[in-house]
Amino acid sequence: MLPLETYSAVNAEWLIFLSPELASRAQFGWTITVHILFAALSVGLAPFIIYFTWKDVWTDDERFSRLRSFWVTVFAVGFVMGTVTGIPMSFQFGTNFPRFATIAGELIGGPLAFEAKMAFFLEAVFLGILLFGRERVSDRTYVLSSVLVGIGAWLSAFWILVVNAWMQTPQGYDTITQNGMRVARLTDPVAAFLTPRLPWMYVHMVNASVISVALLVGGVSAYLVWKTHDSTAWQASLKIAVLLLLVTAPLQAVHGDAYGRHVADTQPQKFAAMEAHYETGQADLHLLAFPKDLSALTDPHAENLYTVSLPGLGSYLATGGDPDAEVLGLNEYEHNPPVALVFWSFRFMVGLGFLFIGLAMWGGSLTYRDKLADSDRFLKAMMAATPLGYAALLTGWYVTEIGRQPWVIQGELKTSDAVSQSLTAGEAMATLAVFLIVYVGLIAAALLVLRWLVREELQDLGVLAPSQETGHGRIPWVGGDD
Amino acid sequence: MTELLSVDRYLLDALPEVWFGVVMFALAMYVVLDGFDFGIGMLYATRSDEDDRETLLSVFGPVWDANEVWLVAFGTMLLAAFPSVYSRLLADNYLLVIGFVLALLFRGIAPELREQCEDDRWQRMCDASFVGGSTLAPLLFGVLAGRWIFDVPTLSVPALLTGVGLTTVSVVTGAAFISAKTGSSLAADLRRYGIAGTVSYLGGVAILLTTVVVTDAGGTADAVLSVPIAVVVALSALSGLAGIGFARREQYRRWLVSALTLPALLSLLVALLLYPVIYPATGLTVREAVVSPLALNLVTVMGLPVLLLVLWYFKFLYGVFSGPVVDESYGP
């Protein structure tokens, strides 16, 4: 075990943010929230980009050149945003959680370095070619570039999740004393990289990204179809998004159910928080729970909830069929995560997941009857669902990360012991404020760009009169040879 | 895997030193490649003509993102091989690091956002963010490097001069890069900034090293007066002066080559000043700070071949976009 100091109990007063620890946690949580939006965009949009590029290059279908040009621009803006928000993250382990970086450096440094070298470079280099090299490389190299960009995005997620999965189910190491500090030492790379959590996390995260982006593509396409009625390109785009949802949304539910059992087995405390299960014993499934007072929202010890429950279903889900099984409760642990946040995030995610399945089935049946573009009600539902995939993805991420607290490395190192000792509350607060403001601006800018792109598309389709201010001109590009 | 990879000794006896070299190489790649991006960003402020500005953006558009990945490669490899140095360096320089990454953020998004809307006010805002970020990023990164190498406060001559050094050398490489990519009138106009930058850079390095010797900052006075460093400094002066000559004679490709050796030599200077210590503030040497044999063997076997592959497709990328920029508009 690593040297653990006493965990300073979190209290509900706002003054807690004056501590460097909570300001650091809020900063990390906020920066990763925004980064994940763009990282998931790369992962989820990659299959669309590859497909549109391939169709555009190998068929003379004008529809796909329009779709490719639109979504590659979105991809490029998202990738830039992902890069600029990812660079601070790559340093935050050092700036805010240096004791975590020192203690776990041997275990997490390798995978993070592999992410940069195997994935990030691949994505960045070939995106340059995909964006600006159409006239400079052969068709084959061009399509290959889109595939390599996609592989880069998916590999990137893989190596990042290697690190995160190790933090959830750590193994493959022992501890030694180095320079007066007890640190983790790698003993078994295969065990440390291929942790029990990795396959569950990877499938769930990549699938969630594809669902989120399918809903984004579907929502934008539905809007353009609704506006124009006869755009065959955007009808095709809508159909592809619906078909992709038809596969990925049900998969997420089936996989998520099994993933839940895996969490119950490997992180019983997180499972108990997800289900607000306080006393060890038979677990009920709480459909709804309301805190009796406001402090229960942030107090990790909150037990006073009004609940509407289905008896035994929690046990049934945790074990895969036994409604009477004993499930460990939060009473087993001295310190618990903020239960209400985890509980509600989980319910929000699962509820949205079922909504997506319904939406996919609806769209599927319309596609089958060849009426996808005709149902205004469905088009409006798709438009309304545009941001919901992201909402589900983020709340799912909160379940994973907040549900693990107070641990940063499950069972080994507490978050409070990982924080910088030299960081002052003032520095932490000031930078938190700057990140809050700047990242809100980034999201606003990304949404503005999407809006301009959609408006420009409407102008091109002849639905909207061209206006002076929103013209979108590519900068002149490289041409000619030596 | 543990049977194939030794747990109790390094694959090569000198592997810790090799990794010190690899980390410094990544730093050099970053300083050289993103350096000219920064330089272009600063020179952008001197252009008011819209066509000139768009040409400047075109020059580095396809490559800047890939260039910037070298920073992440540097950071993560430092973490993988020397986690305690990574942690202490970043924790000790909290505000500098956050300021630096924010400067990178502002300069990174600006060109991409600028081209999405032709509104004047929007473009002016993006331009300000681009120029400001491009100036602050090398300055803050240089100050950070100065604090690292010389163990001095932020507001001290060695730290500030290191910041100024990185900023001026970026102006030199930026001007040379634009000149080599565009030729003609823009180059003729920009080379004077390149020449002024070279003079200030060489002067700055001379003052910096003199100050370090006089004050013995970080105990590096002896190191500065050694032969290898004298050779690196002499080579810098030579390639700087040669660069000025090439720029005057409009031999822009040669100028670019000599200009790019300046930040490369600067990184070499950093490595020579540090070694065998890796973090003077803690007194830790490379051997003391390095991770255990198995972890280092693993990043060597899995990481170094990939790094070679990366260098190969970087060459491919620069090959695809070689040649001068002309006014030919195409994109996705």
From TrEMBL, chain A:
Keyword Heme part of the UniProt annotation: yes
Membrane-spanning parts: 28-50, 70-91, 111-132, 144-167, 202-226, 238-255, 341-366, 378-399, 428-450
GO cellular component: cytochrome complex; plasma membrane
UniProt GO molecular function: electron transfer activity; heme binding; metal ion binding; oxidoreductase activity, acting on diphenols and related substances as donors, oxygen as acceptor
Cross-referenced Pfam families: Cyt_bd_oxida_I
InterPro entries: Cyt-d_ubiquinol_oxidase_su_1
GO-annotated biological processes: aerobic electron transport chain
Entry annotated with the keyword Cell inner membrane: no
Protein's recorded name: Cytochrome d ubiquinol oxidase subunit 1
From TrEMBL, chain B:
Molecular function (Gene Ontology), one example: oxidoreductase activity, acting on diphenols and related substances as donors, oxygen as acceptor
Location relative to the cell: Cell membrane
One annotated GO biological process: aerobic electron transport chain
Highest taxon listed in the record's lineage: Archaea
GO (cellular component) term, any one: plasma membrane
InterPro entries: Cyt-d_oxidase_su2
Short name of one Pfam family: Cyt_bd_oxida_II
Keyword Zinc-finger: no
Regions crossing the membrane: 20-44, 56-82, 94-110, 130-150, 156-180, 192-213, 225-247, 259-278, 290-314
The keyword Signal belongs to this UniProt entry's keyword annotation: no
Alphabetized UniProt keyword annotations: Cell membrane, Membrane, Transmembrane, Transmembrane helix
Topological relation to the membrane, as annotated: Multi-pass membrane protein
PANTHER family: CYTOCHROME BD2 SUBUNIT II
Protein name as it appears in the record: Cytochrome d ubiquinol oxidase subunit II
